[in-house]
Design a protein that fits this description.
45% of the residues lie in helices and 15% in strands. It is of the alpha+beta class and 188 residues long. The chain has a 3-stranded antiparallel β-sheet. The longest helix is centred in the C-terminal third of the chain and has 30 residues.
Length: 188
């Protein structure tokens, strides 16, 4: 009867203990993970010495990490500027895409903030909202092409709302029930 199978991969040894190993001789008491899963992980003496030690990075890897840190900081600053300017029109926080550096850490390399760009109930409210969206889109020091497109769309939304407001006012003046301006002549 085989009571254990030993494999080695990447300097780590995985020892899989058979489920029913009661008949095995010289059996060590099982640990909780061994009882739950039927295996235990063990390292050789040499591997224990290197376990937890950080591997030295090459100069190129160190340069990559520094560049990734700069990009991460720029991305976070950029998205925070959008969030700060958007106020209540931001839908949730910023979302980021990450890359893993040579050191195993994750660094943001892009991000976005979702904004509510729907029209409001009144043209006046839509104009105010469009101005805030435009300001939020252009808030970072280095707006992206997508940011500039969102700002242009917001400007268009404000212009449409202004046109709607003008037509609404013109329509009120053209109705027969609307008070007509009176002209008085004075002689003097």
């Amino acid at each position: 009867m085989i009571s254990a199978v030993s494999t080695s991969q990447n300097d780590y040894s995985l020892i899989a203990t058979a489920e029913n190993s009661k008949d095995a001789t010289n059996e060590e008491p099982k640990r909780s993970d061994e009882e739950k899963f039927g295996y235990k992980l063990s390292l050789s003496d040499e591997n224990w010495k290197t376990f937890g030690k950080k591997q030295e990075l090459s100069e190129e890897d160190k340069r990559k990490i520094e560049e990734l840190k700069k990009i991460d900081k720029r991305v976070h600053t950029h998205e925070q500027a959008h969030l700060s300017a958007a106020g209540g029109y931001a839908r949730g926080g910023a979302s980021y895409d990450y890359v893993t550096g040579p050191d195993g850490n994750k660094y943001a390399n892009s991000g976005h903030v979702n904004l509510d760009t729907s029209r409001e109930r009144t043209p006046e409210a839509t104009i105010m909202k469009a101005n805030i969206i435009q300001k939020a889109a252009l808030a970072p020091a280095d707006p992206s092409p997508a940011d500039k497109q969102i700002a242009a769309n917001a400007a268009r939304m404000a212009e449409d709302a202004k046109q709607e407001l003008l037509e609404k006012k013109k329509g009120v003046q053209d109705t027969p029930d609307a008070p007509q301006p009176t002209v008085s002549e004075s002689s003097g």
